[in-house]
Amino acid sequence: MREGWARQQSARFLKPSTIDPRVRLIERLEEFTGLYPWQWTPADGEAFIAHLRSGDKPIQMSTARTYEVTIGLFLEYLLDARYGWVHACSERFGEVPQQVFHEGNSVLHTVEYEGDPRRRPLDYDEIQALFDAADALPGKIRGQGRKGALCALRDAAVLKTIYAYGTRRTEPSRLDLVDMRRSRRAPQFGRFGSAMVRFGKSQKGSPPKRRTVLLIPEMDWVVDVLDQYVTEIRPQFSPGRHPALWMTERVGRLSPRSINDAFVAAREGRWPRRGSRPPLSPPQLDHARDRVRLSGPVRTGKCRSFARSHHGYLHGGLERVPQQAAGSFDEEPTGRRLGRDLVIKKMGYQWQLRQLMAERQMFQTSDLVPLLAERGVTLSREQVYRLVTQPPQRMSMDTLVALCDILQCTPNDLIKPEVVNTQVRKVAGGDADPTPITPRRAVIRRPGQP
Hints:
- The protein is mainly alpha-helical.
- It is 40% helix and 6% strand.
- The strands form three sheets. The chain has a three-stranded antiparallel sheet with strand order 1-2-3, with no helix packed on it. It has a two-stranded antiparallel sheet with strand order 4-5.
- The N and C termini lie far apart (62 Å).
- Residues 275-343 and 422-433 have low confidence and may be disordered.
């Protein structure tokens, strides 16, 4: 029965992430009652829901309604004469399935929002504090001498883009560079006038919904943010021909979970310990353990027809960022900062691989891929591109020896030592950190504010 019901849902093109939890719920009900589906009664369904409502972690009303609907769908499948389960159960066991939930014992869907009433959208000051905290993280990471400054710059741009365009968590992770387009209604925004969302939320087995999200005048600050990311930050990930807008240090597409982590990092960058947060009551602060909504601007006039109800939201352990004056998030004790940056003599080097390749009429980085493979060194096209264009911080001896054999040179020809005056820091990809980039600050405007 369970397998047949799963096949029926799969034929409707429902995703495994929808089908598998439904099947597990039926298994849980079977284990709780100790009975077969054709033996279930309304009393068994009521006892199951009552059990889930008790204990240390009782289910919420919306969860109970979802469970009741799911069980009803399964029993509706069994009662469908086209599948023959009623006749088979009657012949073999003398019993037939029946619906266990009805109007008298099920949760009715009477309101649009059934979540925790303590949750609310972040206000303008809280959004501003969140973005300022995200902008401060790259400087703090550099000051600590850790990797991740480049990724923090990207994360700050992602958060601002989600708020400006009002997208869901999954939607920006699937955006490509070509999805950012001009808009005839707002030519002043250039190539960031609209975002083509091709992987919108699907419903009832439908394909992902497509829509075009237009940028509104209240969010014009995001144009500078995206322009800085596309022209200065994204090229440092060495994306090559990868189409994704938001890249990872491994030349992949940024995942929705990484976007969640960006929100958590921005929050904890300002309030690292729960006890250090302002003494606000739980309805004001501790309300966002599973979803946070970002309050967008008031859309009025011409913008209402094409920018309604774009409230972006994210899943994952997030909390409201309390209002606080931003601007000193990356301040550190002067002595510690000077102690880390004090360098008497710092050695660097010039990487001569590209010049040596040009002298031997090798002008494409991909020319090295088969030659390295012949010598037992297997690298992808992206790895070879970074090896040629960026000074490597670490390299295996096998790769170094293979390069020397291919180019008929010595390690001294490839590496030219030199003395540098500043300390070289590394970024997430393991490469030398270039001149630090200062994130473009987002200035949140209130309705009516010029």
